[in-house]
Structures are given as C-alpha cells and as structure tokens.
C-alpha cells in the first residue's frame, strides 16, 4: 500500500507544478496526502454532488483537473454549499489534489488527449511554454495539427458535437467560408479565446476551444478563423485518461494496489434550449 504522497510525487514528474500558470492554484487542495491511499476517484470538477458520490463510494483521494479553491474563503459558514463541501471532505478524511494548467501544458496531458480525440496528426504546441523542468523537453499549451477529414465548417462542427457527446455547441464562421475545407486544426481545452491569434498565425483552418465571448467571436470572424466552441466541459476526457495513466503506473510499480474509480456524474452546468425546448 502506498500513500497519496507517493502518487503525487510520481505525478509531478509527469506534469510538474512549475508548468502551471502563475495565477493558477494547483497541487494539494485539502486533506492529508500522507494517509494510506486505498480508493481514488478521477474527476474534472470537485462539486458537492461529486463529493457526495465519493463519500458513497468510500473514496479517500480525489484527483481533479479543476482546483476547488481559486479564491480564498472569506469564512467557513457551512450554510454556504461550497463551505459545506469542504467540511464533508474533511469529515470523511478525503484528500483532494488538482492538476490544472500544468496538466494542460505537459506532454502527454490534456491537450494531447483532446488532439488525439479529434484525430489530429503531426501535432505541435499552439503556444510555447519553454522546457519541462524534469525532462528538458519542449512543452506548450494547446495543440495544432493536421486533420485528414474533408469537411466544411458546419460538417466539422457536427463532427465535434458527436465526438464530444455534447447537446450543442457554438460555431463561429465567416459567411464567405461556408464551403471551405478544414485541413489544419488547433485545439485548447478550457477557455482559449485569448490565443486565437496563435491559431491564425500558425495556419489553422479551425480552432476548437471553450468559453468564447461575443467580442472575441467578432475578431475571429474578421480573421476568417472557423471556431468551434463545444464548451469547457470537454475536458472531462481527463477522467478516463488520468485513470488509465494511473493504472499504467500501477502495472509498473509493486505495491500500488489501490482502487481507481472514474467520476460518472455530468458536471456541465449548461443545458442547450432551442425554441423553448431542451435539445
């Protein structure tokens, strides 16, 4: 049996916290990682319903992508559902660890998973982040690569909708580009509108990212960049991919005999409604 600390040390060789953005809050979020690790859950988000499921499944370690503490708590009034969630985690001795923008940047991490899901080949980083402090390899946020399908922007949007299993998505496209073919695609999980100019500069026909705002969308149209916004929640791909990564480490390390479960609850807060009906 190992402790959570052992897993954390191994993971931080894969996705060093030094790769995280300066504003980010990665690493240990709550609890005692030195406790024995018996049952681990992988999840995109740590929300009250996730914690309730973890308690029900007797989980003692939650490994998440999104941090639970972006902002310091002003008090610990448990009438606030967020504070009650912290109390529930502590009461049940559940340790929480988050790998966010370091996992987005690491080679073999979030954006490689998304690029592979899209079927991209010959990928390179969308924006450079220097070198990995452990391996010395070049790293970067996002990916851009070749797409072998012969699709128009609308066909590509429908493809992404099916691929990511979303109820709907937003397509941003110049009217004159309705029939262009998509051959080079950039992707950045989460909210990547700030980096659309990188996609334009590197010759992307389409850019897949989430949380695009109105004025950014106008600039994307003006630059003839097709953008597919399937939402932030497509990063839930990490739940299975992290579990698979940990299982590979279990196979290579004697004594790593803890159980791994993947979150099955949908934490996407958005529902698409068309003509007054849920779609």
Automatic annotation (TrEMBL):
MF (Gene Ontology): metal ion binding
Family annotation (SUPFAM superfamilies): NIF3 (NGG1p interacting factor 3)-like
Name of one Pfam family that matches: DUF34_NIF3
InterPro entries xref list: DUF34/NIF3, DUF34/NIF3_sf
Positions of a divalent metal cation binding: 65-66, 104, 232, 235
Keywords attached to this entry: Metal-binding
GO cellular component, one term: cytoplasm
Family: Belongs to the GTP cyclohydrolase I type 2/NIF3 family.
Complexes and interactors: Homohexamer.
Designated name of the protein: GTP cyclohydrolase 1 type 2 homolog
Origin species: Limosilactobacillus antri DSM 16041
């Amino acid at each position: 049996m190992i402790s959570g600390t052992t897993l954390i040390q191994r993971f931080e060789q894969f996705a060093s916290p030094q790769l995280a953005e300066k504003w980010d809050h990665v690493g240990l979020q709550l609890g005692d990682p030195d406790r024995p690790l018996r049952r681990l859950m992988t999840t995109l988000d740590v929300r009250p319903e996730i914690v309730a499921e973890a308690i029900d499944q007797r989980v003692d370690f939650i490994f998440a992508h999104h941090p639970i503490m972006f902002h310091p708590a002003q008090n610990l009034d448990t009438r606030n559902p967020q504070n009650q969630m912290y109390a529930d985690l502590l009461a049940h001795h559940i340790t929480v660890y988050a790998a966010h923008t370091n996992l987005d940047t690491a080679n073999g991490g979030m954006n490689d998973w998304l690029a592979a899901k899209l079927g991209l080949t010959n990928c390179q980083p969308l924006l450079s982040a220097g070198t990995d402090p452990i391996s010395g390899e070049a790293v970067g946020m996002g990916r851009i690569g070749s797409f072998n399908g012969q699709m128009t922007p609308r066909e590509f949007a429908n493809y992404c909708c099916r691929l990511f299993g979303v109820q709907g998505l937003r397509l941003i496209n110049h009217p004159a580009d309705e029939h262009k073919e998509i051959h080079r695609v950039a992707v950045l999980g989460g909210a990547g509108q700030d980096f659309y100019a990188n996609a334009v500069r590197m010759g992307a026909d389409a850019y897949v990212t989430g949380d695009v705002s109105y004025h950014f969308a106008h600039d994307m149209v003006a630059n003839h960049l097709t953008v597919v916004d399937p939402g932030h929640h497509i990063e839930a791909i990490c739940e299975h991919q992290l579990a698979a990564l940990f299982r590979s480490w279990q196979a290579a390390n004697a004594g790593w005999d803890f159980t791994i479960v993947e979150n099955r609850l949908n934490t996407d807060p958005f529902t698409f409604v068309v003509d007054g009906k849920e779609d």
